[in-house]
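Hi, here's the filled form for the chain we discussed.

Project: internal
Contact: R.S.
Residues: 172
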Amino acid sequence: MSKGNIQKFKASELELKEKVVNIRRVTKVTKGGRTFSFSATVVIGNGEGIVGEGLGKAKEVQEAIQKAIDDAKKNLVNVPLFKGTIPHVQHGKFGAAKVMLKPASHGTGVIAGGSMRAVLESAGVKDVLAKSLGSANPSNVIKATLDALSQLRDPHTVAQNRKVAMEVVFKG
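And the returned structure, exactly as it came back:
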């Protein structure tokens, strides 16, 4: 994953909401019978541009979810938002999962499937067009989406770097 907009945040200072994306039951067959364990994938975000994902594994579902939340708090990404959408088209990739994100006009909503929707809503994106192009594995789709979001560039920073007005950035 690209290290573009990854910053260290104190998760205790943020009001983060969590969404459980995926819970899997794993069975291990031993001489004494079957042993069940669970893995949980969770996305957390404050709805204002900060989002993270985590994976937790444990013998109980609640414990796996709690471990996933703790893991997600360590992997927070800052997402530049512009008028409720993303500033520009961006592609992300992780493993065989590829995603495409496009900005959308006001009122469009989040047009995305499954695990991508959870990431985008947790980040606070209100209007976006998104498409998953490769693998449907929820974990890899989440990581590809976070890769795309971390590569986004803030329009104010781009305008300052180019030494032009904001209007010029969005015309070209």
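Let me know if anything looks off before we file it.
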